[in-house]
Each structure stands twice: as structure tokens, then as C-alpha cells.
Predict the structure.
Amino acid sequence: MSNGTLYDKVWEKHKVAELPSGQDQLFIGLHLVHEVTSPQAFGMLRERDLDVAYPNQTFATTDHIAPTEAEKRERPLTDEQSEEMLSALERNTSENGITFFGFESGKQGITHVVAPELGLSQPGMTVACGDSHTATHGAFGSIGVGIGTSQIRDVLATGCIAADKQNVRRINVEGELGEGVYAKDIILKIIQDLGVDGGVGHVYEYSGPAIEALDMEGRLAVCNMSIEGGARAGYINPDETTYEYLQGREYVPEGEAFEERKEYWESVKSDDDAEYDDVVTVDADDIDPLLTWGINPGQVIEITDSVPHPEDFEARTDREAAEQALDHMDIEPGQSMLGYDVDVAFLGTCTNGRVTDFAEAAKILEGHTVDDDVRALAVPGSETVREECEARGIDETFINAGFQWRRAGCSMCLAMNDDSLEGDEVCASSSNRNFIGRQGSKEGRTVLMSPAMVAAAAVEGEVADAREFLSDDPAGGASGVEEAAD
Amino acid sequence: MSGENHITEVGGTGVPIPGDDIDTDQILPARFMKEVTFDNMADYLFYDARRDDGEFNDHPLNRFDGASIAVINSNFGCGSSREHAPQAMMRWGVDGIVGESYAEIFRDNCKSLGIPAVTTDHETVVELQEWIEDNPDGEIDIDVENEEVSYGDTTIDVEIDDAMKEALVEGIWDTTALMYSNRSKVEETTADLPYVEGDD
């Protein structure tokens, strides 16, 4: 059993009781609500005549079904089901005194983008949301867990979930990232090393020099994809980077209160001599950009490597998954992913829909245009992100390059709005899941990668190495880049 | 089954759902989550996998209609936390699951719904899946209390997560009432958390 880790400390502080099942009743300090997984839970509350126990710890926004084209956000929404979901959320939140960040608030967006940027997510908290990517908030040094709808009912009615304490695996990420290599590449590397079910039964504590060097946006991207590695939660101990990010944000206390709160944040950090159930080291020194070649987020290679042969895998399950992936993606073992035709470029999501993600992609796009055969979507993770990008002129770079600059939402990550792959289109995507059918078409193909790599793929019309766009070459790109600076 | 909430045993005919890492996007594609209740979810279970060009194909769920016990492989239910996935299975008719392993949120959701999700090794699971193919009308019983699954002349030992077993057998898998009764303890916990202001 772990001892003295942030996970142990935060768990103990939030543990209410041990339940007869042997599970712990854990208080949830921040409950994030969206339109898709909550209406049934509010319905269950009404059936049982229960009130929301902690409305002040509960915040809602709309993301999954949010139309990203400005004209489609007028009410009532043209899609009747979407309108019904959004109306239900408005009604449920207003009846229960829950703050709702709707379209008119200017703060609407993906829960996992909105809560961090408003300062709602803080160190030493427990965070729950009916969404598996709640692990994202662990970037601040909190325990963030995705829950199902019955558990949402539990949190609404009692402020608590019934939960099993997990083992803690420390993942030391050694080394330094080169130019054109990002947090996204680190987490893809970790999933490549440990597998898509490697984290089952564990929470991941990410540490080491490569993690400490990341800004908050990068840390959010790493923690976000903990679930893709099978870990229900992942976190990073808070440090000065965390505190600097938090200072001045809307829901963060100011002045003396900030200093007091900081004492609490410091107190939950893992002790130097903390005990872990497991410690692994991942070498990120000089890794090349990574991307997926298959149909689960563990089917990953560095861009300089070739697609593996099924026989390369020891485990039967991995061999079978590889066969299925090669078939779905229509690729051959031994081939390079460089040059793999791309039809759609999608930039955004709770993984990579933050200002720095768009800024990094903009560096690639500067002076280039999107390939004629590529449909390119830039979807800010929140309206706050959109406004900041627009204030900095980042949107201009995207628009000039030929991207559609959209409003905030989950968009083509899971295609619950109008943004969807069609037929067997290939999407270069900054999202987190390449499951069959995930982006709205059962024949659709998803290649996960960093925002910079998405931008490079958009320009080339095929998978490309973004680093070639970042070279000092005054032509603004390397060989093969047809659309040189004008 | 004895009593209203006590789930000690479930049984019925089986349906094999072979494959590792079957994610909840496959079990219940996202586009069918645009409903504010779970009422129609059974209609969307494995919607894409069960159809070719709009017509039902030979997916096991099409061939083993009326089954109550699903037999799955490893890391079943990974990905999205959507409870829509086990809700769809339950509403389709699944009362219990036997398999190699489950993604955690999926297993938690099964517990919330009172669906026993037991595990055994790969070979045993494959044997059971083959047995179902040969015996589509054969009865499979999951004995939650004794951690056994029986079918035909065979009885196998299975494992079930301690908390899930306790919750099902004792009939306390719906945790809302249980936790609600600890309201005063919750207040004690929140009093020591500097970031929680009293909710009045």
C-alpha cells in the first residue's frame, strides 16, 4: 500500500466513512456537470424527492452537444434532441441553484477546460464528473475521477461517491523534450510503454524532470489521457508553476487568503519519502513526435518508426488488436505513417483545446495553407480560450491558412454535434480516442497526435513531421513543403 | 435472487461478445446518447457492430436474442464513462457478465445497476464462449455468493470484486440512501476542508 503520497493525503482528508461493502465514502469537493450524463441523474433525484446536497460545489456547462458554428447556437437549437438536453440542463441547474456556464455566459466550453481556467480546479481537491476525462484536473494535484450516471446521482444527493482506494504508481518521466515534441507525446509514450490497460487498479503520479518542465496546459494534457492508459486518475504534485497559474483566476482566493490556501496545497504534496505500490521510469529524452497507427490509444509509434507487425507483440490480445487495426486503418506492417493520406484535420478537445495548443499549431501554420483536399477544423476548448486566441490574433493565422475557426465544444472528438467524419475519412486529430466509430463514422479513421502535428498534416494533406516546419529554413519549411511562405 | 435488492444468483442463456478492449463507444455509440433518459438504450446496443449496410449481421447479439449472461474477454468497457453502455446491456436483457477483466468505471457502473461482473482466466472464458455457440439454449448460472459459474455439467470458480460481492449479496448496491444517512459525518469532513464553504 502507498503511504504519504498526495493521493493518500487527499483521500484521507475526504474520506467520510467506510461503507459496509468495504468501500470508502469519499466527499467530492468539485462536481462538474454537463448535458449528456446528468439528466437521468437529476430525474432519479426527483423520483426520490432528494435535493442537491452541495450546489455551491457543483458547476455545469454544455459541451458534448454544443454546436460549434456560431449561427447554429441560436435557441432553440435546430437539432431537437440537443435542444432538449440543453433545456433540461438549464432547468436542472436553475431549479437546484447550480451555477451554469451557458452560451451567453461567455465561459461555456468543455468541462475540463472551463474548470481549470476559471480556477475551480485546485490542488488537494476531489473532482468528479460524468466524463472519463475528469482525470485532467489531477494536473493541479487533485484526485479527479470519471463517474457513471448513478454515481452522479450519489454526488448530487450526498456530495459523495462510494469508491475503492487504488494503488499508486509513480511514473518518472526522465529527459528533456526537443523542439516540436510536446506533453501529448509524453502521454502517448507512457501509454505505448504501459498499455491501454496498464493502469487498471492504479492511479498514476506523473513526476520527473520532463513533467516538472511542463506548463499547466501540458500537465492537463498528460493527466487528461490517464484514462486511455487504463488509470482512472492521474495527478502531478503542485509546484510554483501550479500556483502561478492559479493566481488571479476567478474562483481562486486573493491576497492573504491565497497564501493560506497555498499552505493547504503544499500540505498535500507527496512526501519525499512517500511509499508507492509501483515505480516505473519512462525515458522521454529526445523522443520523436508520436502518433497512433491503430484503433486504440496504445497503438502508438514515434513518427520515425514504422507500423509494427502483429507478430512483434508478445501478448495474444495485442496481436489480435494489431490485426484488426491494420485492417481498419488499411495499412501494412513495416510502412511509415509519414505520407498517410489525411482528409480532415481536427484541433481542439479537452486534451489539446487550450491557448498554448492553438499557439503551437499556429507556429506551424504561419505562412502556409491547408491542403485543398483537407477539411480543417479549429475548435477552441472554451469560449474563454477562443477569446484569448482572438485577442492574440491566433485565430487569424488559422483562418488565413484555411482552417474553419469555430465556437467551443467537444465537437469531432465524439461527434455528438454536427461535426463528424464521413465514410472512411482519415482524421489527423488532437483528441484522445481513436476507437472505431468514435468520430461519428464506423468506417472513419483517427490518427491521434499533437496539435503541431495536426497543423502539419493539414498543410501537407498527409501525416508529416511537424518539426520540419520549425526549422530555421527561411523558406518556412523543409523539403516537401509545397506551400512555402508567400 | 432473494429479497428486493439482494442479488445472490443470476442465470439464463448466454451470449458471447468476443474481443479485447471493447470500448464503450462500440457498446453504445455516442450519437445515441442524445436522449435525456435511458429508456431506449437497448435499441442502440452495439448499434454499428450489429449492422452491415443497415441490415442486421451475424453479430452474437443478433444470434442470441433473449440471453441473460454476457461472456466477454479482457478490458471490456474501456474508454468513456458513459453508464449508457451497461444500461443498454441491462435493458437488452443482460443480468450478469462473465469475463477476463473489466475497465474500472464500467465495473463500477455495473455495480450501481446491480449487474454482477465476475472474472476468470482467458482459457475458461473462451471455453464458455464456445459452449454457448454449441448450446445457444443452455442455461448459465452465476452464483455470486459462492463465486461460481455453472453451465451444462461444468462448474467453474470465478472471482468477483469484494465490494461488488458484498454490495450485491447484502442488497446495498444502490449507495445513495446509505451515504445519505451519513450526512452529519459528511459535515464533519467538509469542516476540515479549507476550500469548502458551508452550503446553506
